[in-house]
Amino acid sequence: AILKVHVRGKPLDENVNLAVLARRTPGFSGADIANMVNEAAILAARENRHNVSMAQFEASIDRVVAGPERKSRIISDREKEVVAYHETGHAMVAWRLPDTDPVHKISILPRGLALGYTMQLPMEDRYLMSKTELTHRIAVMLGGRVAEKIIFNEITTGAQNDIQQATEIARRMITEYGMSDLLGPLTLGHKQEQVFLGRDLMEERNYGDEVASIIDHEVHNLIDSCYKIAEEIITRHRWSMDRIAKALIERETIEGDELNRLFEKM
Fold it and tell me: How many Cβ atoms from other residues are within 10 Å of residue 159's Cβ?
C-alpha cells in the first residue's frame, strides 16, 4: 500500500511488478520507499527514458540496501575469486535449507563497504520466527566463511559482518527468546530503555558469572552447530559451487531465472 502511494503519478514501464518490489523491500520505512522511488526516477532520467522500468527500481533498491556501487574500487583477480566463492557459499546454503528466504541475486560488484552481496527475498511478511528459522539464518550467514575455508583452506576478514550478525542472533536466541534447552525460557539481562546524551545503550546483567559462562557456552555451541550445517551442504555440493562461482566471476551479477537454473542443477 505504501509503495502504491509513492509510485502514484510516476510513469511506470509495463514490466514493473509492484508485488516483487514489495517483497524486495521488507522493513523499508515510508522514507526508504520514497528514496527508492526517487532514485529509480533519477536513474531513468539519466538514461533518457520516458518511464521507470524494473531495472531502475532494482538498481535503486540495491543502492538503498547495500550502498552505492563503487566503480572506482578495483580488486585483484584473487580477491574477486574469493568474493565469488564467499557469496556463492551464502547463496548455496540458503538455497538448500528450508525455512529460508529465496535467493534473488548474487553480486560481486562492490557496493558501500561490501565487496559483494547475496540478496534474499521473503515470500511474505512475517512477524514470528521459529528457532529452526533463526538457526538456518545463522547457517546462511556463516556460508561465506565456510566456503572460504573449504575452497582456499584459508579465511579472510570478509566474513566480519556476517559473524557479527550471526553472533548477535545466537545471543538473542539464548538470552532474549528463551531458546536454550539448558537455560530454559528465561530472559537474561535488562537493557537500559532511556539513552541519555553521551551514554550508549547498555545491558544490565541480572545473572551471575556461572550463568554468564553458560550463556557463552550455549552461544558457542549454537554457532558451531550452524557452521557444521553450512559445512555439510557446501562439502556435498562442492562441484556445483565451482560452477556457480565461475559463472559469477564471468558475469559479476546473477539473478532471477538464470540464478534459478544454476541452482536447479545442484
Answer: 22
Cα–Cα distance measured from residue 261 to residue 266, given in angstroms and rounded to the nearest whole number:
9
CB neighbour list of residue 9: distance below 8 Å, 6 or more residues apart: none
Contact (CB, 8 A) for 187 and 175 = yes
Give the cell for residue 167.
553472533
DSSP string, 200-244: ---EE--S-HHHHHHHHHHHHHHHHHHHHHHHHHHHHTHHHHHHH
Over residues 221-230, the pLDDT tens digits come to 999 999 999 9
Highest mean pLDDT among 9-18, 28-37, 51-60, 209-218: 209-218
Answer yes or no: 87 catalytic. yes
Other beta carbons within 10 Å of 113: 9
CA separation for the pair 244, 33 (Å, rounded):
32
Which member of 58, 81, 87, 148 is catalytic? 87
What letter represents residue 16's amino acid? V
Alpha-carbon gap, residue 264 to 35, rounded angstroms = 35
- What gap in Å lies between CA 86 and CA 148, rounded to an integer? 6
Q: Sign of the C-alpha dihedral, residues 98, 104, 109, 111?
A: negative
